[in-house]
């Protein structure tokens, strides 16, 4: 599943379509009517968490890549049918695959809390803390995947952040010392920007410390693994030696 930093990279790559008129809109989507975009001008491209947003005058196309979604700019993936394909002048195109698409009506500011996006200039760590403390029984692993609190944070970020701050994924939010809660909030944003830089360098996997790994780089212990952890039921990797369980 593409995480927030990957969507920011897509947004930056798609900025060249701002001000361009859609000449063709096709795809195998059964949810929206692609023809609505034909003849419309792209007013802006934005991102919120894991959502990629293409703004028109009075509505917005929202693309969510789910678990296996992907995209191609000015190219097409062989032997794959696009969920949605937008064509522009001079043969330019935006293609989206295996994703969820929908239209959002009206003002995006009424739909999205930009302060919850960990990569947004409007990110507000104080608001994140206020939201967290209202969920004392929530597991740390679930908290970092909660899009209303950490929009854009995904499974890689979750595993790596918890290892950075030495917190076991099954720790409860209400049991975390105030200092650890602050570290979680800070590192969720800091690691997201590290992720962004490594992804642009095609070096993200080289920097993984515990995600999809077998041994802890800090103490050499064999990492614990669970295929479905927490309410989110996502893969978790952690070190029982250096990541403390707070209950």
From TrEMBL:
InterPro entries: FPG_cat (IPR012319), FPG_N (IPR035937), H2TH_FPG (IPR015886), Ribosomal_uS13-like_H2TH (IPR010979). GO terms for molecular function: endonuclease activity. It holds the Pfam family Fapy_DNA_glyco. It comes from the Bacteria. Keywords: DNA damage, DNA repair, DNA-binding, Endonuclease, Glycosidase, Hydrolase, Lyase, Multifunctional enzyme, Nuclease. The keyword Hydrolase applies. Residues 2-95 form the Formamidopyrimidine-DNA glycosylase catalytic domain. It catalyses: Hydrolysis of DNA containing ring-opened 7-methylguanine residues, releasing 2,6-diamino-4-hydroxy-5-(N-methyl)formamidopyrimidine. Belongs to the FPG family. This is Endonuclease. The lineage of its organism: Bacteria, Pseudomonadati, Pseudomonadota, Gammaproteobacteria, Lysobacterales.
